[in-house]
Design brief:
This protein is α+β, with helices and mostly antiparallel strands. The protein has 3 domains: about 110 residues, Trigger factor ribosome-binding domain (Alpha-Beta Plaits, 2-Layer Sandwich), CATH 3.30.70.1050; about 100 residues, Chitinase A, domain 3; about 160 residues, Trigger factor, domain 2. Helix content is about 45%, strand content about 20%. The longest helix is centred in the middle third of the chain and has 34 residues.
C-alpha cells in the first residue's frame, strides 16, 4: 500500500509499505522470476527450491528484485490515482524501515510547478507586417541566372573577378601538410575565400604557369598545427575562366521554368514569395501572442527541467555539427570553450523555453483541450497517403514517441487556433 503527502508546493512524498506477509509474496515473486538463473548441484536448472538458493547465495539474494517489484507496483498506483502528482524527474528513494514486520520505502518526487496564468484572451497584439518587393523578385531571378551560369575559358592572364582553375600543394617548413592539396579547384579571384594574399599572387598568371605562392596562416586559424605559420603553395594555373550569365528574357524563363514568358515566370516567383511571407508572418504572429502571454504569467521554473532542456540543446548542436563533419569536442577546443560554458551560454534561453512550455501546458489543461482518436487518425492518414500506405500499416510502423509527436502537433494547432480567435492582431 502507499500514502502520499505534499511536502512543499512542488514536492510530494510517497510512502510505500508492505507487511511481513506482503513482503514475503514479493520475495517469492522475485524467486519465481529468477530461479532459472541459478545452477545448484543436484538440481536441474530452475528447479532448485528457494530455500536452497538462499542457503547457497545468501538469504537476501532476491531482495533487490523484490524491492524493485514492490516500488514499481505501488509507485505506479500512486501516479495513476493521485492526479496532482505529475513527476518531472526520477524520485529520490530510500528505505525507511526494514525488519521482521515488513518494509517501508519513502520516495520524494519533484512535480510540475503551479502556473499563475496571465490574461490569455481579449488581448490586442501588434500584427507582424511585411510585403514582397520588386528587389526580392529580382534577387530570385538572379539566383536562377547564377544556377544557369556558364564558365568560358579565356586565353589571357588571370585578373580580378576571373575564375582560376588551379592545382595546388601546400607546404609548411618544407613539408606537405594535410588538407593543403587540390586539383582543378575553381577559385574566384577577389572573393577572399583563401588565405590573405593567395588570390592576389594568382592574378597575372597564365595558363600552364606554375608559381610558388607565399602566405601566412592567421593567428586565429582553426588548426593548431597551422595557425600563425608561414606557408608556400606550389600553384599551377590550368585555365582562366569568365562566368557568363544568361540574358533575362523569355528564352531564359522557358529554360528554367514551366512558363513561356519572363513575365509569367516573375508572377510565379512573386506568388511563391508571397506564400512564404504569409507563412512567416503567421509564425511571427503566433510567437508574439505566446510571448505576450508568457511574459504576463508567473511560474517557478524547476532547475531539473532547465538542465533537461540544456541536454536537448547540446544533443541538437552535436547532431548539427556531425552533419558538417565536426565533433563537439573539436568545436569546443577550437572556440576555447568548455561544455559547461556552452550550457551556461544557453541557460537563459533554456529557462524561457521551459517557462513557455509550462504556460502553454497550463492553458491546455485549463481549456480542457484534447486530441481525439478521429483527429489523430486523420492526421496520420495525411502522411500515410503520401507514402502510399494504409492508415493501419502506417500506424503499426510508428513507435509511441512518433505517435506522441503527432498528438502534440494537433494539440499545438488547437491551442494556437484558440489563442488567435480570442485575441486581436492589429
Amino acid at each position: 500500500m502507499y500514502t502520499a503527502k505534499k511536502l512543499d508546493k512542488n514536492k510530494y512524498q510517497i510512502t510505500i509499505s508492505a507487511s511481513k506477509e506482503e513482503w514475503e509474496s514479493y520475495v517469492n515473486h522475485a524467486y519465481e522470476e529468477n530461479k532459472n538463473k541459478f545452477n545448484i548441484e543436484g538440481f536441474r536448472k530452475g528447479k532448485a527450491p528457494r530455500a536452497i538458493i538462499e542457503k547457497n547465495y545468501g538469504s537476501t539474494v532476491f531482495y533487490d528484485d523484490a524491492i524493485d517489484h514492490l516500488f514499481s507496483h505501488e509507485y505506479s498506483n500512486a501516479l495513476m490515482n493521485e492526479k496532482d502528482i505529475e513527476p518531472i524527474d526520477n524520485p529520490e528513494i530510500r528505505i525507511d524501515k526494514f525488519d521482521d514486520n515488513g518494509i517501508v520505502i519513502i520516495a520524494e518526487v519533484q512535480c510540475m510547478p503551479d502556473v499563475k496564468l496571465g490574461a490569455y484572451k481579449g488581448l490586442t497584439i501588434n500584427k507582424a507586417k511585411g510585403e514582397v518587393t520588386d528587389e526580392q523578385v529580382e534577387k530570385e531571378l538572379n539566383q536562377a541566372r547564377e544556377r544557369q551560369a556558364r564558365y568560358v575559358e579565356v586565353e589571357r592572364q588571370a585578373k580580378d573577378g576571373d575564375y582560376a582553375v588551379i592545382d595546388f600543394v601546400g607546404y609548411v617548413n618544407g613539408k606537405e601538410f594535410e588538407g593543403g592539396k587540390a586539383e582543378n579547384y575553381r577559385l574566384k579571384l577577389g572573393s577572399k575565400t583563401f588565405i590573405e594574399g593567395f588570390e592576389d599572387q594568382v592574378i597575372g598568371m597564365k595558363k600552364g604557369e606554375t608559381k610558388d605562392v607565399n602566405v601566412k596562416f592567421p593567428d586565429e586559424y582553426f588548426s593548431d598545427e597551422l595557425k600563425g605559420k608561414d606557408a608556400t603553395f606550389k600553384v599551377t594555373l590550368n585555365k582562366v575562366e569568365e562566368k557568363q550569365l544568361p540574358e533575362l528574357d523569355d528564352e531564359f524563363a522557358s529554360n528554367v521554368s514551366e512558363f513561356e514568358t519572363l513575365e509569367d515566370y516573375k508572377k510565379d516567383i512573386r506568388k511563391h514569395l508571397q506564400e512564404n511571407l504569409e507563412a512567416r508572418l503567421k509564425r511571427e504572429d503566433d510567437n508574439n501572442i505566446i510571448e505576450t502571454i508568457v511574459k504576463s504569467s508567473e511560474v517557478e521554473i524547476p532547475q531539473v527541467l532547465v538542465e533537461k532542456q540544456l541536454d536537448m540543446f547540446v544533443d541538437d548542436f552535436k547532431m548539427r555539427l556531425s552533419y558538417q563533419g565536426y565533433k563537439l569536442e573539436d568545436y569546443l577546443k577550437q572556440v576555447n570553450m568548455t561544455i559547461q560554458q556552452l550550457r551556461d551560454e544557453r541557460r537563459e534561453q533554456a529557462k524561457e523555453v521551459v517557462k513557455t512550455r509550462l504556460v502553454l501546458e497550463a492553458i491546455v489543461k485549463q481549456e480542457k483541450l484534447e486530441v481525439t482518436e478521429e483527429e489523430l487518425d486523420a492526421k496520420l492518414k495525411e502522411t500515410a497517403d503520401k507514402y502510399n500506405k494504409s492508415l493501419e500499416d502506417y500506424k503499426k510502423s510508428l513507435g509511441d514517441r512518433n505517435i506522441a509527436y503527432y498528438q502534440n502537433d494537433i494539440l499545438m494547432n488547437k491551442l494556437l487556433t484558440l489563442l488567435t480567435e480570442n485575441n486581436t492582431l492589429a
